[in-house]
Amino acid sequence: MSYFDAASAAPLHPVARQALAASLDEGWADPARLYREGRRARLLLDAAREAAADAVGCRPDELTFTPSGTRAVHAGIAGVLTGRRRVGNHLIVSEVEHSSVLHSAEAHEAAGGSVTRVPVLRTGEATAGSYGEALRPDTALACLQSANHEVGTEQPVSAVAELCREAGVPLLVDGAQSLGWGRVPGGWSVLTGSAHKWGGPSGVGLLVVRKGVRFAAQGPVDERESGRAAGFENIPAIVAAAASLRAVRAEAEQEAVRLRELTERIRTRVPSLVPDVEVVGDPVRRLPGIVTFSCLYVDGETLLHALDREGFSVSSGSSCTSSTLTPSHVLRAMGVLSEGNVRVSLPYGASAEDVERFLSVLPGTVAAVREKLGAPAAPAASVAPAAPAVVDAAAPQGDARVVGTPQGDALVVDALGKRCPIPVIELAKVFGDVPVGGTVRVLSDDEAARLDIPAWCEMRGQEYVGEEPADHGSAYVVRRVS
Amino acid sequence: MSYFDAASAAPLHPVARQALAASLDEGWADPARLYREGRRARLLLDAAREAAADAVGCRPDELTFTPSGTRAVHAGIAGVLTGRRRVGNHLIVSEVEHSSVLHSAEAHEAAGGSVTRVPVLRTGEATAGSYGEALRPDTALACLQSANHEVGTEQPVSAVAELCREAGVPLLVDGAQSLGWGRVPGGWSVLTGSAHKWGGPSGVGLLVVRKGVRFAAQGPVDERESGRAAGFENIPAIVAAAASLRAVRAEAEQEAVRLRELTERIRTRVPSLVPDVEVVGDPVRRLPGIVTFSCLYVDGETLLHALDREGFSVSSGSSCTSSTLTPSHVLRAMGVLSEGNVRVSLPYGASAEDVERFLSVLPGTVAAVREKLGAPAAPAASVAPAAPAVVDAAAPQGDARVVGTPQGDALVVDALGKRCPIPVIELAKVFGDVPVGGTVRVLSDDEAARLDIPAWCEMRGQEYVGEEPADHGSAYVVRRVS
């Protein structure tokens, strides 16, 4: 088995396991109590806080342990927004933040606050310039991840922090994906992290609030964790989290070089091994262990299951795997292909052999999924043009069915009720049937089509004309230019 | 070492430790993922939910795991208050609830809601009658603990639930102290619990919301735990929590009999072994393992340290051990003595030998603390009366100092700036100096005096006249009747 989804959760580091086992005996009591079991627990908690603060680069009294990274984000954003409500109620986030940040933004809007969602480049980068434009006199807080969790792109945290500093606005950095690799650079004000991303146990997040940042903890609080994280401290897990952070940091520099070389192999070789693939994310300014690509004409969920059967555990931002049936907000914000999306995120210690085996297995796996879905084998534009017709992708097997009168050189594909990647496959199948200069209108009610049809056009060098409202969905219009 | 503070946190049950170790290997991955590690984690989570639901007496889909009992209470109260806000914004809690409930009530008031705090009997019982009186047409939620965490008194949950049912008001039961002993009886609507109270690990709480209860989760949420507890699930800890709940339940009936006999020994023998002790809490309707008593003329913190040196870990609701310098809200609501308060809460497996050793050590330990504080050795009323005088307890060693002119048969003790138990000790020292019918006015700015001076009067059979405002504090007036 090769587990390639470290960006979701890393397996427990041996040091974390050891620390957890040891502190189950010493750290179960209430650290607020005066007796020896309580004092022992307090000593462990204090030591863990010092170790974590040292790794993060803050004072121990600036660092709070929370029950998860998500809770750290929720508490951090709510605390600063409330602490600075006299300044204003404007919040800035990037469009590619982790869902915990975006959920906080939605809650802020629901409570009457205003939110600017900063767009990103096609690489996934939220530029400092965009943050500079978003800053307003009533901005209470800006949020930016240190690196993206789906595509690995590193964000310009230092530059954005500097702009925020000049504007007098605190910057919250979600450091979940990068804290295992090193300190978050720059003059951030609030930092969050999650231990199970660096090989620590579940149940531990970090919330660092720099001295001087106005902060008002929200919801009922108690006396624990400086009033910023209510509830009995999970000391054994906290000890394990701090210990494993130190441990991974000790290996980080060397391991980063190794994993970067392995993900580079995937970045460079996948496009030549598998036709119609788009590798996404910044090729250089990226996390060492993450590489993401999307495969045209592929159903993400089927591909994940097929790879799982081959012994590879990867994740996908494809809508085909999501219960909400909308494609990953990250891929959407980047404007890249979402169908057949695969994120490989290598854990510490991932072997070159496993990566090579992945590269050897992937082409056949993708081909099998495509064959099953009846995807066209070669670029459709090479097919000789025939008379325009109206086809109905909703028919069994995706067979073409005339549903109306062809209008000039326009061909209509009715893919209503069909999920990705079927609308794109149907587009590709008939595209050779329209003459150069002619158009295909794809009727679809699948959210992914909005992303994947333009992406297909870009990959095929065809013109994406635009989207028009249609009965029960949208019409996506594509013009054949070659 | 004898750890007698199970009501704060129980040591990890061997079954919990075993389950935790096993599920660290199987349960670290994201249960929302499709690959095998994710599916394995999901299976563990589902099985733990079923086991916990069975132990609690609910459907699995009614049960949510939270990061702590405190978080379960916060989320449960906020969720029902919001879900039922069209009914009204009135919340009922008892005065002796856990701080997590009272903090939620404070947050509700701060947000404009109204709260009724139901008083309790001297035993700590919140009667059904009081809840019946508190219910209003605009009551959104009532909360009642299954049993009190400081004195062990069981609450009339079934009767209160029935009243609430008739009124159409959901009842939230904080079952933290009793879930290890058995299901919470009666028709409750929402139930909360905390695994580390029953020998499970830290980091796991339970929130059960019965189908049909209007519930709107507050704060940013995500797709985890039915949208009621955001953040990555701590599956190894959840598995251990469920396993240990089953394990302690299997032993509960037998262990309850055994611990009840041991706490009964303490209840009955402490008053004869130690002079001037008040055992508090209901003598019959109580948890098996908890017994609480207060010792006149004793500083709780000093007593705890002394007992710790003798190898006993106990806790105290005495103000003398609290950073906030107010006596336990539970003891205050009960109207009992707070000074020198000791809570003994026996963990599963506590031995009779350890309890006997505690009983043999306690008298000498209390006597030593009293001697150090210069407490009167025998009831002050037996001292022959002398001429009235004004004494100043603030002087070094607590020596009497004339600070004003005696008014008739009234004697004034200035204990301003002195912490419990000094004001009561000074009262007792001079009480023999006033004639029968005369009064002593104790000037004090210590919150505990408000509780402990009336309690002293009750124990001594003297008349507590009342409290009057005074410069820098209050004057507590006591009349000598014998």
TrEMBL record, chains A, B:
Catalytic activity: (sulfur carrier)-H + L-cysteine = (sulfur carrier)-SH + L-alanine
Domain of life of the organism encoding this protein: Bacteria
Limits of the UPF0033 domain: 413-437
Alphabetized InterPro entries for the sequence: Aminotrans_V_dom, PyrdxlP-dep_Trfase, PyrdxlP-dep_Trfase_major, PyrdxlP-dep_Trfase_small, TusA-like, TusA-like_sf
GO MF annotation list: cysteine desulfurase activity; transaminase activity
Residue runs in coiled coils: 242-269
Entry keywords, A to Z: Aminotransferase, Coiled coil, Transferase
Cofactor(s) for this UniProt protein: pyridoxal 5'-phosphate
UniProt similarity note: Belongs to the class-V pyridoxal-phosphate-dependent aminotransferase family. NifS/IscS subfamily.
Protein name as catalogued: Aminotransferase class V-fold PLP-dependent enzyme
